[in-house]
Amino acid sequence: MQCTNYMMENDEETRRLIVKTDVEQVKQQALWAGIKPGMRLVDVGCGPGITTHVLNQLVQPGGSSLGFDLSPKRAAYGNEHYACETLRFEQRDALTPIEDFGQFDFAWIRFVLEYHYQNSFEIVKNVDKIVKPGGTLCLIDLDYNCLTHFGHTPRMERALVQIMNNIERRANFDAYVGRKLYAYLYDLGYEDIDVKVGAHHTIFGALKDSDDFNWTKKVEVAARAFYDFSEFPGGFEEFRDEFQAFFADPRRFTYTPIISCRGRKPLS
């Protein structure tokens, strides 16, 4: 099976992916996972390449990095803006053969598996083939994605739950993939597995421009396509206006659990 659709695709998706990337968080996650200078690294589902660029800095001196993504537009963006002697980008489907890339000391899959409800483990098994014996595989994703808010109306709560249910059925999206990551590494026989659970996009008080843009795009692109808004007499526009008013209110509280798993591939 190949990945053919990406539900968040829109003209501003490259910008959204860059704006929402927390560089310091990426560094902390990678250091926790055991990234070191001199490693050969692969970033699976690298998007526009900003995260790969950060990871590549952490494997210097002496290391090298490859980022690959399903989108030719974003692979090209990475090569235009971040490629250098030690870093390159390719367009490739993570569910197709990737052994020609060679072997890597460190493989990174972050915020990718959530888009593959039916085949996320197939992606992990495919990436496992290019991890060197003794190498590290790091899986990072969200759990209970987009579902934990306080301060909105009961109809907004019902709408958000139904939107996420519809996205799972119709767009292969997994709002609960984070809880599965440990089992994926366990089932593949990885050793020294460790897990870290935290909070992602914890939003309270004044709304940051980056969070406003990120969540506005989520509503405009994903929510709009997967719900009939029957509880909202004004349709999608009324839903959007109510969500934006809720989100702009400094009283509101929003967060999503983030789960990070790392493991070492057995030497034998």
UniProtKB/TrEMBL annotation:
Highest taxon of the lineage: Bacteria
- CDD domains named in the record: AdoMet_MTases (cd02440)
Under the heading SUPFAM superfamilies, the entry gives:
S-adenosyl-L-methionine-dependent methyltransferases
Q: Name one Pfam family in it.
A: Methyltransf_11
InterPro entries, alphabetically? Answer: Methyltransf_11 (IPR013216), SAM-dependent_MTases_sf (IPR029063)
| GO terms for MF | S-adenosylmethionine-dependent methyltransferase activity
> Where is the Methyltransferase type domain positioned along the sequence?
42-138
Q: State the name under which the record lists this protein.
A: Methyltransferase type 11 domain-containing protein
Which source organism does the UniProt entry give? Geomonas silvestris
